[in-house]
Amino acid sequence: MTKRLAVVTTVYPYLADRFLDGYAREGRWHRADMKVVSLYLDQKAEGDLSGQRAAEFGFRVYPTIAEALRCGSEKLAVDAVLMFGDFSKPCVEVFETYGRAVPVYHDMQLSGFQNAKWMVESARRLNFPLLAGSSLPVTWRLPDIELPLGCEIDDALMVGPGEPNHALEAMQAMIERRRNGETGVQAVQMIEGDEVWKGGDDGRWSKQLLTAALSRSDTPQGLTLNDGRTQDLVASGELPRLVRKPAAYFIEHRDGLRTTLLMLDGAIKDFTFAARLKGGDILSTQFLLTPEPEATYSACLAGKIEEMFVTGKAPYPAERALIVTGTLESCLGSRSQGSHRMETPHLSVKYQPPLNSQHCRS
Amino acid sequence: MLISRRELLSGAAVAPFLRAEQRPKIAAVTNIFFPYSHAQHIVDRFLEGYGWNGTHHHPPMDLVSLYVDQVGANDLSRDRARRFPGMRIYPSVAEALTLGGGKLAVDGVVLVGEHGNYPTNEKGQKRYPRYEFFQQIVKIFRESGRVVPVFNDKHLSWNWEWAKQMYDESQAMHFAFMAGSSLPVTWRIPSIEMPLGAVIREAMCVCYGGVDSYDFHGLETIQCMVERRKGGESGVQWMEAYRGERFWQAYREGVWPRELVEAALCRSHTLTPSRPGFHNDFPSFDDMRRLVKDPVAYRYQHHDGTLCTMLLMNGLLQDFNFAARIEGRAEPFSTEMYLPMPPARTSLASFFSPLVHHMEKMFLTGKPSYPVERTLLTTGLTAAGVESLFRGKSGNETRYETPHLAVSYEPRSESTFWRT
Questions:
Q1: Distance of alpha carbon A142 from alpha carbon B321, whole angstroms
Q2: pLDDT (tens digit per residue) in B139-154
Q3: Which of A32, A182, B359, B397 is the most exposed place for a label (fewest CB within 10 A)?
Q4: Which of chain A's residues have a Cβ under 8 Å away from the Cβ of B51?
């Protein structure tokens, strides 16, 4: 039977279009057997599309979340919820009121750790499937690699531009596959400026892994923009010239694994990762963000959401997004307190990764 | 450099460099060298190194000489020669190969006959001097009594007879000759290979670009896949090109399988949104008609019956997508040959990296990674497409019999596209 979806959102999300108009999946234009029946919009942005979409695709825009989930009736009247922004509490309230809960996709980008944790616990308590996170962990990879399940990781490093949340999430999707799965984060530290370069010289992060990660980048800045040349940004010493505000996020996991996120705005414009496994093998890849506005990478995420709505099982645990949210929050806390190392006893988030790869590869 | 154990064990395959640990000397013969030109992408990878297999790889060879046919205002070759004193610029192809002496003094030649100001003929073919440069290269080989491997960027020549002559000479003189563009060797999304020995009924590439330019890339996209079919390559019998209203009529009548066009389009990352306000929707036939002002199709049949179609659909997409109907599979087999294309999407044309990787491999082993017959055939197909369009424009029969394209060859069993 066609699933009825509610969209609960801050502004109209293009990801919702995937459930209205279909998306490319495994070489076919796929239309989910689902229908968006209601939408709650928190902010009417300029050029808002929700009215237009509602008229064309025959759904209603409701003034409250409860009404969107009830579709004007006196009971929960949808089979699944697409949530963008932190509307966990009103949504769960409706589930509790009517004694029934349905699968929820939650981008979990702007929730604080406590809210995110509450949502993950609510999902467990009320027994509804919850998928959280963004497209980066599930998009295409160049090359198409996965860390072997149960591997032992010596060191891992992620590089990205812009905001750190997606980069951190992509790294987490890789390292959660290590032996015994995720054990939680014990301590974090975030440093900025020249300290970041000093950290590289002192061996706090691996230049070898940075070289490996950047070897996967298609967007080196600086001299490449001038004349198209290839660059070894690490060996050439160009990085400090290109990156005005470098930031390093050091993450100590409870099982002893230490990982680093380097945000190198100005040096590159894509997301790359490298890890050294026990025994010395280095694996590296780029998480491919395809061009805008088509943003075909979001079809990869749409596929995962649809899978959960159909099977009633989240293809990967929401704890991934939860630990990322908490880690990031603590890193920013570290920065605001003089960039000191900060213990994170609250981040005892344990989970096992999915057995199979979840990114787009077919 | 990845060289298989089998290649190492077979003495014949091993060039002297593997044993002597000597660095091969390479000459580059180019049309013109400016930012983001093919010459820049290729030569820079030898000089500066490039990201490969998870590190910044420096080729174990030296590009010691460079010939540049046209030096423009935005020339970079002089800058590169200054920054890399190990590379000298020579005023002629011959001197680049002899390093100014009397005899061949390099161990490999890269010929990059792309871009630059060259005349265009009445059929719209740009008369790039690849054949002319090739003749100067083999002249030095003859005079020196020694041959070395040659890599030719893109197709062999705009002129089929000349291309065939280039091929015949490489065979007669027994030197390793490899050619083509990045399309067969770049990333694929998804990262899949045509099963060796597949029975292919129909194959399709939906791509973009111009006639006598990107059409070649589209044809290579198809050929590197279909050559793996059962029986190997048998050559092409005829070619028919469609343009403008004839294209739409053929599309509507199902001259080529719509199912494969749709499969190919579903691999594209650059489909132009067909409706305002939508970012990634699937175009209807009418949307396509509206978006694509000058569509071009090349449809051709191989001797064993396999039918192929290459569509240039400027305005609809900006990438190269392949689809095929394979016996025993309910769904089309499809993938994208992914080009991280600067300047809009990337800063680095990383798809030149696997191409240079295969050049390096040939210079070290003396063996091409893939058969030059592929490029010979796609060179002929490009010229045949242009010919068919030209005949149509002059009001003549567009179906063009191609007995000269009876190019048969066996593919390499191993995959040579970028996956590491």
A1: 17
A2: 999 999 999 999 999 9
A3: B397
A4: 214-217, 230
pLDDT tens per residue, range A41-68: 999 889 899 999 999 999 999 999 999 9
B8 vs B124: CA distance, rounded Å: 46
- B276-283 average pLDDT score: 94
Which fold, B190-337+379-405?
Answer: Dihydrodipicolinate Reductase; domain 2 (3.30.360)
Residue B254 neighbours by CB under 8 Å, 6+ apart: none
Q: Does the distance separating the beta carbons of B49 and A230 come in below 8 Å?
A: yes
CA A122 to chain centre: 20
Q: Is A355 within the bounds of a domain?
A: no
Residue A201 structural domain: 141-287+321-343
**CATH number of the domain bearing residue A161:** 3.30.360
Q: Does a structural domain hold residue A307?
A: no
**Cβ-Cβ contacts under 8 Å, A142 against chain B:** 187, 189, 338
> In this structure, are A98 and A223 located in the same domain?
no
Domain endpoint, select from A132, A161, A191: A132
pLDDT digits (tens, 9 = 90+) for A161-200: 999 999 999 999 999 999 999 999 999 999 999 999 999 9
Confidence tier at B18 by pLDDT (50, 70, 90): low
Q: Which of A17, A230, A284 sits opposite B54 (nearest CB)?
A: A284
Tell me the pairing of strands A130-132 and B88-89: unpaired
Q: Check A228 against B342: CB less than 8 A apart.
A: yes
pLDDT one-digit tens code per residue, A309-356: 999 999 999 999 999 999 999 999 999 999 999 999 999 999 999 999
Q: Global pTM?
A: 0.95
Out of A132, A165, A194, pick the residue that ends a domain.
A132
Which fold, B5-180? Rossmann fold (3.40.50)
